[in-house]
Amino acid sequence: xxxxxxxxxxxxxLARLTVPREAQQDLVQELSAILDFVEQMNAVDTxxxxxxxxxxxxxxxxxxxVVTEHVDRExxxxxxxxxxxxxxxxxxxIE
Length: 95
What we know:
Helix content: 25-40%
Strand order of the largest sheet: 1-2
Distance between the termini: 55 Å
Number of strands: 2
Shape: flat
Radius of gyration: 28 Å
Number of helices: 3
Strand content: under 5%
Oligomer: single chain
Largest sheet: 2 strands, antiparallel
Structural class: mainly alpha
């Protein structure tokens, strides 16, 4: 698929990009090459292929879900300018 310079200008405008005139032709060629590659990938028959999250069939390594530190609420709230019933009080922002 080949793009025109006008189409590239429209794409650049939609993306809020400023593309100098001298770079537009290069951008036309690069974007056209990307679209050609996408067309090539779309032509591949993927019927029956199971989607996968990783190219290798390995289990995901997860850390154990255990508490590693204790938060001392009273210690942190002692530093706050205003606290009531265990909650931080903040100034009203919206009237």
